[in-house]
Amino acid sequence: MPVSRLRDIPGIGVDVVGEAADALADPDVLRLENLDTDLPPPAVALEATRAAVGDDAANSYLPFHGHRSLREAAAEHVGRVAGRRYDPATECVSVAGGLNGILNTLLATVEPGQEVVLCDPVYAGLVNRVRLAGGVPRFVPSHPTAGGWTVDPGRLAAAVGPATAAVLVMGPAMPTGLVLDDGHWAALAEACDRHDAWLVYDAAMERLRFDGRSPAHPARHDALAGRVITVGSASKELRMIGWRVGWVVGPAPVLADIRLVGLTNVVCQVGLAQDAVAAALRAPDADRDVAAATAEWRRRCETVLRQLSGYPLIRPHGGWSLLVDAAALGLTPAALSERLLRRGRVAATPMDGWGPSGERYLRLVFANEGTDRLADLAERFRVAVG
Question: Exposed (0-12), middle (13-18) or buried (19+): which is 53, by Cβ within 10 Å?
């Protein structure tokens, strides 16, 4: 790479597998490689989008930091989950999807050469954005257990040091389904305060928990609240992937910087989509809608776990995906992915580049195929790997 900022950014792998599956043009292929879902967005969002197509105000750059309706809805939503009140005028900005919000936040908080703490395995898109912003990823290993993934709160806090600009966490995390709780926030509060570090919380999937519990938002911890920057998205919980709308909520001084980065980066969000996202966030049945979708994704997850009970899978605590330990099968993730696509007609992404431990795992996304389509997954694996 002639440009140094790209030398340690390998890509995410999903595009490669997705294009290979597309090239087969075979409807029998199980599409388990990409974070898509076939569950439709809320009806109120579809109605608002159709109305926006004919609205001249929706066909505008303005306001650059997001429509008032969206910022109010997003600030209310985050405030309700976090147990805080956020001012939509000064403590919330709209962004063009959650990952745009992550990059804008990193650019506003990380000096080149500073560290950003991440749990491993982790979504490659987060790692790549840390590097693109000039940051240095510092990985804290998560551990697979019979009950799912865990990460030690003390070890996570100990990774925060004088060189740390931020801790970047997601819950449930991609691709593991790891969920952090109050014990992690308590440990991080002292460490972040001591080293003047931000906690950037990716809330894209925070309500997609399979234990039925409410999200454990870090800003509910009083000692941490002033350091929490929440980045949310309509793509996962609301299934509004193509709308490309997200939000960043946090203390006003840092939000002013994040807003400036946004003006300099993507400039503004999709005008046709913002009122639709606001309507979905504020709908009277919004929580029931997310809970119903989560229940369906959990059924699909359980189907995968049953089908592949003889294989080395790690149970997720939520989200849209789970990991297969390819190394335990004597294969690299890339080799397992190739066999599954060629022999079993299953598209799945190897986790190379998804943190140091990614070199041993393959990801299965269960959000985009119904339980009827997943019913022969065991046979497909048997044909592919035995």
Answer: exposed
